[in-house]
């Protein structure tokens, strides 16, 4: 009993103090909290609530107008029993891999190239970034023309005496999309790398030069280690964004030919907006969400291990 | 910073957030309901006044949202505004707000979930079953029963929206799928035009004779991307005597893997082998028509008036250089059957009864009237001032041989900027409605099959492709249909 009384006494004595401290803290953070409030509410309304609702919908046959019907795990069973689900996963992984091999190094090379320039650094940055500001509708129209059998690329190949390249075949369709996406997106990543490069102390380059390092030596021993963390961060971001690709696949090829560019998210949107199976689409979204959470946790763990080492 | 200011700032912040959230939740039909609530709230006062004057109570105030055209269609929007004015003068209790949203089957679910579709909107012949199953459109049978002109509607045009004996849509126009031919490409090549009563074989020969890949001109432009691919191919399935599905004993069974289906798929394969189709198979509806308008294809398949309108009025092709052919038959003298389509007015199922009634009255207000004919006449005059051609639909909401049909024909005959269909075409072509159940799923699956054919480099087992597609659609879609 004594043990119970003793802790209560100081708590009572501290209560006004704690109250005063809480009041002071509230006063101190009132303005900051006020400015945070809209962002929190917007995130809540447009991000967290949809995520929670999406998880809920995955257990229902969704009918927005006439009411939903609880179906348990049926949506998940149907998703896992659909052969297109596995085709979409395979295609998405293939697209992610291709984008890494073909596209990931481009902004790194571009940023290093630009930072090594003695003149025209500003114009080079602008030229590199220009593709990013082209509206999507123009972009896809332009690349449809580039890839056309009588478009500029094939006309040039024919001029060189080479056969036309079939950008629309099942074997090449995904490759064609990666080229298009890399061209459009490398500019913004380049700017991030350039910002990272500018944070590397100049004296490290001077020291390297005094030690006799040439251009390649500087890049290998100063530049790349200097932006290593940035490369890892952008790698994770690219993997996440390419795992959710569907826009160019939908517009350029509609997921074809013969489901050759059917990605996971494209199949999800098809379930939702072509077949109106919002429950199944939500189930696919939840599976993707789980995958990305696991992937992100794994990445954080690996990076922690790396930092500790 | 004093306490008062902080409180005021918090209050303003809260109000701003409230306004933001309230703005997010607004929609057309709640707005309508609000107007009605206000009307109801005012009703006692109005009724009291009416009792004093011993007059009939004023009609309930109703607000509806009408289907408008894109902003660049100034002539059409002006005509709509004039029609709204005429209607509201006769019905002062109804207020009508025009709003542009063009029906898309990929957007309708979101529109209905947010209750932001117009009170009356235009949709396609294919959508009847889907929209009624979801209860997104209202049953118009009662309104039709009291509309004196209901019996004068063209039965063929009305059919796609008569479902289980109830009427859900009012036809605007209808069409059958046809082949649009660029006559100039044939003339430039010195190739005679094929006969109107053509066969699939003659079609391929015609395509071969004008095909010029070096110049980027294809003999024929089939749609190969998206569900349009399946929709296009279905014309050949129909003309070969096939069906998408059969319905018996409450069960839907895939039927497109029949002998007719094989013939139709063999035809696509023959087109590919002959090299008369574009190498870039990924052409949706808009892509294929754009290509035709650019003169990069001699033939394209589309609804009878739609490709013509685009080719003449957007593509700048002379109206004398485009012709409409029926879908080729399998053998000489055979049937030329295309998929039937059309545009329909439907009433939003989420609107309340008063709004639905007002919307119905507005939609049919000028049907079978001189005002409608005057509006067409004005549209033709407006198009002439822009050097455009009026492309009438082949099938209208009225019967062509009716009094009204003759009056309409007289309006067309007054002008020289009206496209005239060949009488032989009208005699030859037949139209057949699409399947009732899970048509989009069937189209999507057939799109894969067609793409396999269009990109294949070697021999394909066409029957197996069809059988596999039929089995998949059967298991995943048709078996789940509950026929009522």
TrEMBL record, chain A:
Entries under Pfam families matching the protein: BPD_transp_1 (PF00528)
Keyword Thylakoid appears in the UniProt entry: no
Main subcellular location: membrane
GO terms under cellular component: plasma membrane
One BP term from GO: transmembrane transport
Membrane-spanning segments: 29-51, 93-114, 126-146, 183-200, 281-300
Membrane topology: Multi-pass membrane protein
Database matches in CDD domains: TM_PBP2
SUPFAM superfamilies in the cross-refs: MetI-like (SSF161098)
Keywords, sorted A to Z: Cell membrane, Membrane, Transmembrane, Transmembrane helix, Transport
Residue ranges constituting the ABC transmembrane type-1 domain according to the UniProt record: 89-299
Domain of life: Bacteria
Location of the protein in the cell: Cell membrane
Family label: Belongs to the binding-protein-dependent transport system permease family.
Protein name (database record): ABC transporter permease protein
Lineage of origin: Bacteria, Bacillati, Bacillota, Bacilli, Bacillales
TrEMBL record, chain B:
Superkingdom of the organism of origin: Bacteria
Composition bias type Low complexity, residue spans: 33-51
Keyword presence, Lipoprotein: yes
Signal peptide: 1-28
Keyword tags: Lipoprotein, Signal
Region annotation (Disordered) ranges: 33-55
Keyword Signal among UniProt keywords: yes
Pfam families membership: SBP_bac_1
UniProt xrefs under PANTHER family: ARABINOSE-BINDING PROTEIN-RELATED (PTHR43649), SUGAR-BINDING LIPOPROTEIN (PTHR43649:SF16)
Protein name, as recorded: Putative sugar-binding lipoprotein
Organism field: Paenibacillus pasadenensis
